[in-house]
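FYI - complex with pyridoxal-5'-phosphate, inputs then prediction.
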Amino acid sequence: MDHSATTPVDSLVVDAMLPFFSEIFGNASSLHSFGTEAAEALSLARKQVADAIGALPEEIIFTSGGTESDNLAIRGVVPFNEGKKHIITSVIEHPAVLNTCSFLESLGHEVTYVPVDVDGIIDVKVLEESIRKNTAIISVMHANNEVGTIQPIEEISGIAKEHNIYFHTDAVQSVGKIPVNVDDLGVDMLSISSHKIHGPKGVGALYVRNGTNISPIVFGGNHEKGMRSGTENVSGIVGFGKAMELAAERLSEDSVHMTRMRDSLISRVFDTISDVRLNGHPSKRLPNNVNMSFKYAEGESMLMLLDMQGVAVSTGSACSSKSLKASHVLSALRIEDEFIHGSLRMSLGRENTMDDIDHMVDALQETITKLRAMSPLADR
Amino acid sequence: MDHSATTPVDSLVVDAMLPFFSEIFGNASSLHSFGTEAAEALSLARKQVADAIGALPEEIIFTSGGTESDNLAIRGVVPFNEGKKHIITSVIEHPAVLNTCSFLESLGHEVTYVPVDVDGIIDVKVLEESIRKNTAIISVMHANNEVGTIQPIEEISGIAKEHNIYFHTDAVQSVGKIPVNVDDLGVDMLSISSHKIHGPKGVGALYVRNGTNISPIVFGGNHEKGMRSGTENVSGIVGFGKAMELAAERLSEDSVHMTRMRDSLISRVFDTISDVRLNGHPSKRLPNNVNMSFKYAEGESMLMLLDMQGVAVSTGSACSSKSLKASHVLSALRIEDEFIHGSLRMSLGRENTMDDIDHMVDALQETITKLRAMSPLADR
Amino acid sequence: MYSKKVMEEFSNPANVGVVEDADGVGEVGSTIDGDIINISIKVKDNILEDVKFKTFGCVVAISTSSAVVKLAKGKTVDEAMALTNEDVISYLDGLPEGKDRCSGFALDALKMAINDYIHKNK
Amino acid sequence: MYSKKVMEEFSNPANVGVVEDADGVGEVGSTIDGDIINISIKVKDNILEDVKFKTFGCVVAISTSSAVVKLAKGKTVDEAMALTNEDVISYLDGLPEGKDRCSGFALDALKMAINDYIHKNK
Ligand SMILES: Cc1ncc(COP(=O)(O)O)c(C=O)c1O
Ligand SMILES: Cc1ncc(COP(=O)(O)O)c(C=O)c1O
């Protein structure tokens, strides 16, 4: 139940990829027929990705993943906006966006980080007020990877359009879970990552609306119309294309299934475990995201005890090797100290069943009981 | 016979990768055991890559391929050399290096492109003379991808060391064909690409000697010790590691085999076809590279006729969609007009046999005969 | 990337050679460019009775040469002069983007040959 | 990433609780930090006859608590005071890099408890 971290590759996707390792192994840039076959496979994948989000094939740039897509979107726009050195984003973006922004800050750009409310919804009024004459780009994620909150992208993209500012959204978590259509959302750029939707790792795409001028961030043999150099990861891209096709086909079924599991998991946890809260927006949330905090139980400890029971989850409260701090997302939601150290993200996938939910609830009960018995706080 | 463009993935490599699609599909950054298994697989691959080039595991940064590695090496060093805005490279580098350099020029850096002799060997004297007080990095490729010429890397790295300048080499073509040991070569950084050595596409590595300070070019979740963010392409990296292990194991056998085929191909072409020349250095060349030019026959036409006979080659003379010009490498070697439009690169691989050489020579004879019969130049 | 028709004309070009006692000859290109197209014609009763080509060059150079020669053969001088680049491209079921530069050379060589004939017979 | 021993102490910690009529109590941490370790001791004839812990915190916090308690139990006051961080880490077969910060808390809590005992019995 850690599908927001990554997903298993669908067997249909693996099947689609396999021929491209040793049979059709050509370099898509080669002129001979081995190369042509590879190039045709890329074209098909480009169409599959484009179709799934209502875009044109030529608007898709393949990258090495969601992180690179985010980097390309934000850094790609900057050189085309001489003098426009201001960027607007939110405080709860993925590090791929936040650290790209801090890099640009180190180069002299200015960044406004718009706050969110306690449910994780961006403050659109503050966003609009922070627009300046020299704002080059607004980047706000479609759905948050930790708490699953879905942002009012249409509203924000409308504001961006009004002010003639490029708008990018990181849709890495939303694709395959809720409808993602570039025209409905009104975005100029949109990031996707293959491994979040049952495709292989190390592949992704940036959608770039026709007419949006960006410059590359990796230089070389001018692959991807010069926007992303480097021999194309043919098998990976083929798998990604297939995964996007499947995601689009299965979206309505998947989202009903996941929503049902999500709601059942949330209500059963509330019913059976005390001192618990739901993090993120109660309804404007991804169908596959459950993020809850438990008093008197610490995130990493819960995660590890659950892991021993065969349940994989993640926590924004990790006393990780890198920092003792709770995640920037939980902090931005102003979650109380008693709850912030005990958060768990349980993210569902297509292949989960109600049995998994049962097992999850049981394992969680056992885990919480055990940790609370150990906690000096529980009986105060 | 287009192994310099790309290679089929070895079946042992595919076998190594397969479990990482749907069984061990964890995110290497996750704390739970699925993630730990993935992280362990990355550690093994890092050791395999390091061992193959005489490096330490912690000196390996995984990237999305050779192109990104070249970008990272050159652009990564620049921010750590405040005021050092001069770069030295050669005129025959891969576009991944050359276009990275032109990008840096557009940002105000200065680049010296050192010329080569008619065999493609860099002019070391000019290189040394072009060193300035503000030279940040020297980047010279180990072996050229078009003509196979091997550069005197030890000599150049010695000069770099003397002047306290970082030295990077693009070893994308040399790994797996000739010995590549970072200490013997004396390099600070070295680029590798997986798909050139029977590994999957879209993976590569940059070796960075301990103590060499570079900054990242992709920002995000601080994977690869912050040097390369983005969820790791676990299956790809696992395959790359295996491919490097195999390349090292098979190096001496492979290189003897390829050298024999190469020399046989060259001498048989010279014996049976007139008006032909060998491009690149006669002896300081990759064991798998044959690059020859045929008068009165144009590159793309030869390539296409050979393709119809089941032989894949490449040409630096492509009347390609992008430009009518001969490649920058052939031009740098000052090859005469009559020869420059008729070049073919035949690059051999581990799995080629003497039968393939026979077939190549036959197909070539037929092709050249046909095209020369059509050429208005042949009978003048 | 090339149409079937292009590959057909390229790999089985007809009318290769130089017309004997040509009435007109046209040649375009140079070794520096890497494309040389030579077209020679035999004209009888204002009709291009025979047309042949010799071409050094890429797939497009050879296939357009072959196409131009086939299109021109049997036509009147005026009809042949009226041939357009579009005629050649559509005869070949299209050419890949960016290959337009080469695509005009063969037609240029044909028209040069016809002009040579007209000039000689003035 | 954690040693077997760490996972053992973490998942099956012994001596959880609060010693009745404790002779000394130590507590380290706060909810803000996300780690609270409480250690209570019973001392008889200068020997730590009983030692218990209650810990809210991560894997390292819990496993070091359990380890510290086991190491201290049965030792004399002086012996227990002489316990070092290295003793704890080696008892646990090592800790991952970067986890050193948490690793000292449990020992701090033990020493606080012993000091509390010494102070009370002065
Ligand atoms: C919202 C969001 N953006 C970007 C990324 C980065 O994508 P990738 O893992 O492909 O680098 C992730 C996943 O890690 C994510 O959840
Ligand atoms: C010498 C050289 N450097 C760099 C590259 C780029 O590597 P990749 O294809 O992995 O992007 C190549 C191959 O295309 C190459 O031959």
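Chain A touches chain B through 70 residues (CB under 8 Å). The CA atoms of residues 142 and 171 of chain A lie 5 Å apart.
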